[in-house]
Amino acid sequence: MDAKTIQAIEAILKRGNDAEIRQKGGGLIVLEVKKTIKHST
Q: What's the whole-model pTM score?
């Protein structure tokens, strides 16, 4: 991983969301995973 990828991951984590890293072709994809609670009992 290069510095730009690590910065993207750190920015996502700082916002309180989860980061998901996947391989795509010869590189990596960083996904931001947001989960919201729609209903709680």
A: 0.77
1-39 pLDDT, tens digit each: 899 999 999 999 999 999 999 999 999 999 999 999 999
| Vertex 10 angle, CA 8 and 12, to 5° | 70
Q: What three-state secondary structure class fits 13? A: helix
User: How many helices (H) and strands (E) in the chain?
Assistant: 1, 2
Q: Which residues contact 18 (CB under 8 A, 6 or more apart)?
A: 12, 32, 33, 35
Token pair for residue 7? 């910065």
Q: Which tokens go with 20?
A: 């998901």
